Amino acid sequence: MKIENLPKEHKELLDSLMQAIVDIDEENAKAIAEKIIEQKIDADFAIKYSIAKGAIEVGKKFDDGEYFLPHLVMAGDVMESVGKILEQAIAKEMLNSKKVAVIGSVEGDMHTVGKNIVATMLRSGGFEVHDMGVDVRSMAIIEKAKELNADLICLSSLLTTTMPYQKEVIEDLKAMGLREGFKVMVGGGPVTRDYAEAIGADGYGKDGIEALEEAKKLFK
User: Fold this and answer.
1) Greatest extent of the chain over all pairs of C-alpha atoms, in Å
2) Which pTM was predicted?
3) Does one domain contain both 25 and 131?
4) If you ran DSSP here, which 8-state letter would residue 179 be given?
5) How far apart are CA 18 and CA 79, in angstroms?
6) pLDDT at 92
7) Of the residues 48, 63, 90, which one is the last residue of a structural domain?
């Protein structure tokens, strides 16, 4: 589906949802999300278009010094709220793929926005996602993945100082003889594909859209 192929009123709704996210207007964003469902606009496309595009614009404002860390946190909360509304309209067969993902920001990292976007995108792609939040220790992530019999572990890091904790999870899985039981995907601002490969991760996503595509490839 392409945005230019949609009716004008549908495109306007999707663009207005994106703008509400950028404006960090949660009530308006939630109301628009409800309208999108009422108009029977593809909810999966709405997540991939409006939330992803909104996230990019919020990131630009942060880079330009117009937004600061509290704005990123609030924008992440808006995206999560909107995502929950839209996810309700996604076809049940898509949501019942039974691939289970555990996601969290690694130990020492308190950032939520990127992680929240990836979690929302994965849910839109049919994954059952369990978000462990921020500053999550390696063993807590592994124990949760074992408990849920998860298929995928997603590790977020927005600081170079916390990137080693992504590697720690992989090394702990190896030490416990569990590495083959889980696919591990990493991402975050300073993380690169080369780094992901160097630490032995199975996948990498520079943003929510790429993370979803990468996750789908891992389970083809």
Assistant:
1) 55
2) 0.75
3) no
4) G
5) 10
6) 55
7) 90
